[in-house]
Task: structure prediction
Amino acid sequence: MQLSPGVLRTKIKMAPKKQKNSYLKALLWRDVALLTFAIFYIATFVKLFGDVNSSVAVSSFCMLLGIRFVNYGYQLSDSIFALGGVLLIMLLGSMFFQYLPLPWFFIAHSLSLLFILMTTTVQPAFGNGGLYTFSYIFITGNPVSASQFSNRLVAMALVWFLLAIVLWRNHHQQPLKRRLHHVLTNFSWHSDTSHWQLRLASGVSTALTVAQLLQLHRAVWLGFACMSILLPQNPHYAKRVGARLTGVIIGSNLFIVSLALVPDAWAFILAPLAGFGLGLTDNYFYHSILNCFGALSIATSLFGTVPAGELRIFNNFLGILVAIIFIIGFKLLNHYFLTANHFTAQNNNSSLPD
Result:
């Protein structure tokens, strides 16, 4: 269970013939176990708190899987406190941000996401950046009315209690000297991690603001697409952009064709089958294809099959476009600051007496 699909697939390729079947069975059983637990957890959560909190159910399930193995990189008591702050921001964002004027809408999302990334993603390689950004977009992108606020409040409180228990149980034997205030005060433009956090937070916030400005349905798709491109710290963005865009186009059209071929009584099985497929690969291109099935299964009932597919492609295109703009913009800013610092250093050195 602790090994990713990529690791298990590598072991299958490298293992002797006698061990290949063992690793293959482990991959399949891991996928079945995760999918079964996901269905049970999300169905139970929705039954307790209603469909309006399905976004909280899915997000908390993802956070639960992550927090079992990855902590926040600083003292446990501070981490539990920070977790409460992160969930509180998601709660308030899902209640109030939709009513803010456009400039304040952007500022609120930017500051919220930046705080979440700073407190949960000290080490980006461990994957918390994508996990908590996804959860933030999904929860705030599915707002609740005033009459539903108390229900969501209880749901989020339960999530904090559950995650805090798992965080303590799995990480209390790892003594860490770093404190939360050390993490917050270490933020600097000259830090690669801080640079990445700022770019991701501002880029995703811009994508959400564009969706708000254009009054687009399924605004979360813009946020997810932008997040997906901005997540890695490696320079291979062009390849990632191509994989995301072609994956979404292929996946959306494949879903439309599948829905036309599969009898209506069996259409419900498409999303779980795609979910099973997701657990068998860590290939970004295939993930982009398979994710369309879960997303469009819900959107089709709201907009119709073809319009939902067109909307997904359009929203992803806009989200990717925003990400590209931020990649280029931050590279130019970084180059400017490096050049300015180098020029200042040269001036300082030239002013020293010989």
Observations:
- The mean pLDDT is 89.
- The first helix runs from residue 5 to 14.
- The chain has three domains: 1-47, 50-187, 205-336.
- Residues 205-336 form one domain.
